[in-house]
């Protein structure tokens, strides 16, 4: 049949390949978007990290004593506190209002941050700092120019002012107000890295800010050794009356959303595959009519019903498998072309090139097997009809 009806066979295989290619293209787009998004917001460390903050009531404080309690909990691998201070950054002859976050070097790593330029904070360089890309824009420079520059800071540290009355007696707590004390740092900080961000933030090593005497933290990141231990640690922290969240919760929700998206995209591809399968069924039916006399001759010289059925099954399965192979190629090339076009447009307008398509190996293999199965079942009815043809009727068929 492949030799005698080459054009029709190739068109049938092409129809099947378009359906398979549509499935691969659309589902790979879903997997690619999921992979790209999660790679940008997560790391392996951040998935095992809990973000701890104070409740609005403020009954329990995140201070050094509480941090020590976290470190003593079973299953805790690392604890990284951080505090936030309003500051004025000085670069060359320019100054700008910024937010300084003092933390341990592991804070950024546990938060899933990656440096777009340079490196992250390190214990070996206590005076190295990380800035957001927005800070570079504030000083009128690009991120490449900021690497290696030195900055100094003037910190505005909150303090509690307790006023005394005329009798030198302390007033009640209602007369206690918050004030800020300016602390000019003599330390020359060197910019070692830049992270993407729209807020004017500078990350400093906590060890270089000891002179500020800050003992209260805005956030603490606690890394667990495993997922099971992370659940136990979460329960223990909640018992203290603190707020706990984790990036893994967000990732789980995102994965659920992407599963729905992938199913919807796959349904669109399956519609194209159904149309292709109908075309293949039509081809096999026409083939049966054209080869009725041939089948009668085969039966008259001893061919069994099973042999006739197997012949049709094999032809339809081979066409389905070839359609799958061609479909994988079409879907893969289509994804490359679409991704290249999108990246050209993105980079032209100042964006970053990303990979929008990802095809797991198991998914590609499943598509090939699935295409062969679809082809096999497409030939089921024609094969059954062919095996039941009476040899005498078949020989008289014109």
Describe the structure.
The protein is an alpha+beta fold. The chain has two domains: 6-42 and 253-396, no CATH class; 55-241, no CATH class. It is 51% helix and 20% strand. It has twelve helices and eleven strands. It has helices at 6-41, 64-71, 106-110, 133-138, 143-146, 227-239, 247-290, 292-300, 305-348, 361-378, 380-387, 391-396, and strands at residues 49-53, 76-91, 94-103, 117-118, 128-132, 150-161, 177-184, 189-195, 201-205, 219-224, 243-246. Strands 2-3-9-5-8-6 form a six-stranded mixed β-barrel. The longest helix is centred in the last third of the chain and has 44 residues, at 247-290.
Task: Walk me through the topology.
Layout (H helix, E strand, L loop, with lengths): L5 H36 L7 E5 L10 H8 L4 E16 L2 E10 L2 H5 L6 E2 L9 E5 H6 L4 H4 L3 E12 L15 E8 L4 E7 L5 E5 L13 E6 L2 H13 L3 E4 H44 L1 H9 L4 H44 L12 H18 L1 H8 L3 H6 L2
Parallel strand pairs: 3-9, 5-8
Antiparallel strand pairs: 1-10, 1-11, 2-3, 2-6, 2-10, 4-8, 5-9, 6-7, 6-8
How would you briefly describe this protein structure?
This protein is α+β, with helices and mostly antiparallel strands and 398 residues long. The chain contains 12 helices and 11 strands.
Summed up, the helix count is 12
User: Which class do the helix and strand fractions yield?
Assistant: alpha+beta
Largest sheet entry: 6 strands, mixed, barrel
Work out the strand percent: 15-25%
